Amino acid sequence: MSAPNKSYDPVEVEALKPEEIERMRDEALAAFAAAADLDALREAKTAHMGDRSPLALANREIGALPPQAKAEAGKRVGMARGAVNKAMAARQAELEAERDARVLVEEAVDVTLPYDRVPAGARHPLTTFMERVEDIFVSMGYEVAEGPEVEAEWFNFDALNFTPDHPARAMQDTFFVAGPKKAETGVVLRTHTSPVQIRSMLDREPPLYIVCPGRVYRTDELDATHTPVFHQIELLAIDEGLTMTDLKGTIEHMARALFGEGLETRLRPAYFPFTEPSAELDMQCYVCRGASVGNPERPCRTCSSEGWIELGGCGMVNPRVLVAAGIDPEKYSGFAFGFGIERMLMFRHNVEDMRDMVEGDVRFTRPFGMEI
Ligand code: DAH
Hints:
By secondary structure, the protein is an alpha+beta fold. It has twelve helices and ten strands.
């Protein structure tokens, strides 16, 4: 800023000439009028009213003028600035009113619109069914146990008494996890939930009552009755003096809780390396209760008129498995049971194609309702 200087010639102070001041004022007024929105107005304000605006700079020059010229120039600049301030405030009020009116329209809420059109999701029937089965066993005092889906071969096969050449280990059934350069790792994607039996026996002391739901993997193509990823529930009870009748009574209780009162169950001899004796457990068909057998007049779609539905594999835990898990087979015995959830859901709800369960189409899930 210039210091007061008596010999200063005001004529040379171009910025303070009346026509210059007028021009500055008019430019400011034009800029405000041209500002289309509040952002543009803010920029115009900085340019024409800010510290470095022409009028502000001119104002600073006043101090350098002799007294007479100073008063005149001061008045001129002051009036111009006053007019500019007023024009700015007026334009700002105008633009704010415009914005408020626009926001009211744009952000209006039509309270008459339906508020519940977003369809609420539902849990997958596989999940709810699995939890229902868990609940049946939990109410009998069982604990829920879990194990990893990427499992050591030892847990998945060896400890369960699968011999090294057992066909279930073959490439067409098992997903083997390869190491670098396809080296063998001894790790597989578990082919059943039975390895959790071993993990539970190693983790806990008998007596032991566990139920173990989970995802399992097999190298099957996806078709109407197969999927490479499916679910099983495994049951294991270890205690003193358990027998096959305890097994049968337990599964009968489950079958009735799931499918209805009074359903018979039966055991058919079978083979599993980890149980001895082993059996397949069948339940009387809950739809025809056997009435369709030998009765072509009343065929049953659910059991293909066989009268029985296979629930799953079971048996008394093989003493070799108890030994592998550090349990004394002289003192304890146990029973085990395992079955596929998808298959069970297909029976229970007459689902004909397994693919419907895995493809995630809500049209499949919706009829199961909003069960939580
Ligand atoms: N783990 C067998 C499978 O996936 C099913 C099974 C059979 C489980 C017998 C058991 C059992 O616990 O006792 O084919």
